[in-house]
């Protein structure tokens, strides 16, 4: 039965080509990942990130690479979260292309993509999220806050963003 598909027949040459072609496109696409949200800052140098860190209480940063399939998969979700939750001075969203802004990626020890980092008042300090357990993709600090999310984990990313997007006791965000 070598070479037969699940129906017992030989795969057609076209079906093999489609698989080979789709995996080739998936893993070799290096075109810039499109950004659909005007609320996501595209960081092009370290000084831009430093300015943003100084001007907002909470910042979510997506460290990505154009050649990374999981980065491409999570990008629309990140943009949607920015559209729903960005609030000037309170919660901002940024993207750092690790191939173009290596200094920033190195500063924060980013070695896998995508990596999402969380900053509070200019320093790495993520939200405490009820119900989120540490796991391979979610690194927690000693006090239970999210340190980093490694990989395309939309559930953990959404939970972290929503923790910061909640209104405070005074009704402001």
In short:
Pfam families: Thioredoxin (PF00085). By secondary structure, the protein is of the alpha/beta class. The protein is 35% helix and 20% strand.
Classify the helix fraction into a percent range: 25-40%
Number of beta-strand segments: 7
Distance between the termini: 62 Å
What's the CATH topology label?
A: Glutaredoxin
Low-pLDDT sequence parts: 1-24, 169-173
Note the overall shape.
globular
- Give helix and strand order, one letter per element, not per position: HEHEHEHEEEEH
- Helices, by number, come to 5
**CATH-level-2 architecture:** 3-Layer(aba) Sandwich
Write the CATH homologous superfamily: Glutaredoxin
> Helices and strands: which structural class?
alpha/beta
Beta-strand proportion: 15-25%
Count of separate structural domains: 1
Which whole number gives the mean pLDDT? Answer: 83
CATH class: Alpha Beta
Give the radius of gyration. 19 Å
Strand count, sense and barrel status of the largest sheet are: 7 strands, mixed
Question: What does the model show?
Answer:
This protein has 173 residues and is an alpha/beta fold. It is 35% helix and 20% strand. It is built from five helices and seven strands, in the order αβαβαβαββββα. It is globular, with a radius of gyration of 19 Å. 34% of the residues are buried.
Features:
disulfide bond, 173 residues, Glutaredoxin, globular, seven-stranded mixed sheet, disordered C terminus, Thioredoxin_CS
């Amino acid at each position: 039965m070598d070479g037969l598909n699940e129906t017992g027949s030989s795969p057609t040459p076209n079906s093999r080509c489609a698989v080979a072609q789709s995996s080739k496109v998936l893993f070799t696409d290096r075109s810039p990942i499109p950004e659909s949200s005007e609320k996501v800052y595209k960081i092009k140098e370290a000084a831009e990130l430093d300015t943003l860190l100084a001007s907002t209480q909470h910042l979510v940063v997506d460290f990505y690479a154009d050649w990374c399939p999981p980065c491409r998969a999570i990008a629309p979700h990140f943009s949607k979260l920015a559209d729903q939750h960005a609030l000037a001075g309170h919660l901002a969203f940024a993207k750092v292309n690790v191939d173009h802004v290596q200094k920033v990626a190195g500063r924060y020890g980013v070695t896998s993509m995508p990596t999402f980092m969380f900053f509070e008042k200019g320093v790495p300090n993520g939200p405490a999220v009820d119900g989120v357990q540490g796991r391979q993709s979610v690194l927690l600090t000693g006090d239970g806050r999210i340190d980093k999310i490694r990989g395309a984990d939309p559930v953990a990313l959404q939970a972290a963003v929503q923790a910061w997007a909640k209104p405070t006791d005074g009704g402001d965000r």
